[in-house]
Amino acid sequence: MASVQLVEDKVLTTEEIKDLQQKVRDLARQKNAVILAHYYQRPEVQDVADFVGDSLDLSRKAANTDADIIVFCGVRFMCETAKILSPRKKVLHPNPESGCPMADMVSAQQVRKLRTEHPDAEFVAYINTTADVKAEVDLCVTSANAPKIISKLESKKIVFLPDQALGNWIAKQVQDKEFVIWKGFCPPHFEFTAREVQALKERYPDAKLAVHPECHPKVIELADFVGSTSQIIRYATTVDSKRVIVITEVGLKYTLQKKNPDKEYIFPETMNYCGTVYCCTMKGITLPKVYETLKEEINEVTLPPDLIERARRPIERMLRLS
Ligand code: 13P
Ligand code: SF4
Questions:
Q1: Mean pLDDT throughout 117-138?
Q2: Main-chain dihedrals φ then ψ at residue 46, nearest 5 degrees
Q3: Does residue 270 lie within any of the structural domains?
Q4: Percent of the chain beyond pLDDT 90?
Q5: Crossing angle of helices 55-64/76-85, nearest 10°?
Q6: pLDDT in tens, 14-52
Q7: Torsion 316-84-116-172 (CA) sign
Q8: S-S: 33 plus which of 69, 161, 219, 293, CB 3.0-4.6 Å?
Q9: Atom 5, ligand 2: residue with shortest CA distance
Q10: Could you tell me the pLDDT band of residue 9, with boundaries at 50, 70 and 90?
Q11: Nearest ligand to residue 234 Cα
Q12: Residue of the nearest CA to atom 3 in ligand 1?
């Protein structure tokens, strides 16, 4: 019997996984579909994708694809971004219940109210926001480009939302601007503690430490490197150290091991709000769901045309500036 992997409440054998992946690939070819996946996706989902990337890479891919169908293996805001950038394509989300808790921590109404309180500020939203919120802001950023883009803005005052950790990290690097930062957070990242990261450093004194900027500022302070998932992959697979402690969602371990199996990647084992060490909504996308969704062309992402129009402006501005 070959090795097994857990898929929902069913265990699929390696052969079953391979068989399903082949069916997905065949369907994708027949239907001219592209499968995009974020690095936090399950290994068997990453392996069936045409492209795996961070939020910035994935939005670029979604904007430039000539496929008729985009199957987006990620959370809802990523699918919405794909729809906004490619409104004439059919965008399918294999699990419509997979949202991002951080994105839901700020609403369009709250942004409109903030606008009245800070009329002189430029409003910058992390890409991890709903389409409704994007429609209210001036610019979007991802963790891969935020400090670089924001430092180029003329405005002296920035309202940043919704991630307080990313906002604080940007503000530390862009010191000539005043920041008003919303108090949202990513539950899986924000729950890693400086104490446990310090303990990992003491246990592996030869290791380098790479941290995602959604982590708590006290964790970020300990890091040798801070960056988006793609940037962490580049750093961790090439840095001159055999061991790297990586503080982000554990899905990244799969890519790291594939890209450079000679290194050891150490991830924390913090249980988060859903009692797991991973982002449970990211892992809500499973291979059988990808297959069903593409076969039946179900779970289509739809947004009103006027919302697409308004939400597209801050994303396209980001793509131009980055
Ligand atoms: P990046 O892959 O852009 O670093 O984003 C991380 C994330 O939390 C996506 O939900
Ligand atoms: Fe949202 Fe955090 Fe999960 Fe990313 S890792 S989808 S920011 S909850």
A1: 98
A2: -55, -40
A3: yes
A4: 93
A5: 30
A6: 999 999 999 999 999 999 999 999 999 999 999 999 999
A7: negative
A8: 69
A9: 279
A10: low
A11: 1
A12: 55
